[in-house]
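dumping this here before i forget
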Amino acid sequence: MAGLSSARGSLYVTDNSSNRLAVILLTTENEPTVGTGLPSNILRLAPYPSGYLAYLLTAGAGSVYRVDLATRQITAPIVSVARATWLTTDRAGRLYLVGPGLKSLTVLSDLDGPLTIRTAPLPGSASWIWADFDGP
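structure:
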């Protein structure tokens, strides 16, 4: 599983067989940063816009973990959204989760204090979501 940072300067790759995350800086020749001890069954990942964090979504329970790439700390699930199968971040750092059968979009934000979780109704379920970092 791979994800590209919003600045398109880093590539994030997870390896479910060894529960590892590698961050490869595309703009330098440096060795990849490798983090171990990830939760099992990573379904998706979404890099934080700054590049210092990554969010991981696990299959099944839809648990979301936050990985601090500087300290290599993995935060216990910050939220679980059953049936969530896709996540993305926007330029402001908000995290969005959707999945088949879910009738709402889940929005997480913890930029200015404690974690806030909001939902927004959808006209139908969504299998995936994408944020355009170059757009408005």
